[in-house]
Amino acid sequence: MLSLTQKKITSFLEKNGSACAAELSHALGLTKANIQYHIKQLLIAGQIETLPIGATKPYKRGRPTIYYRRSMGACPSNLSQLTSCLLDQYLIPLSHQPENLQQALKKIAKRLAVGKPVSTNPITNLNFAMHALNSRGYQAHWEAHYRGAQIIFKNCPYAEIIDKYPFLCKLDEFVLENLTGMPFRKDHQQSAAPSRPLFCRFSLVEPEPIQSSV
Question: Phi and psi (nearest 5°) for 138?
Answer without folding.
Answer: -75, -20
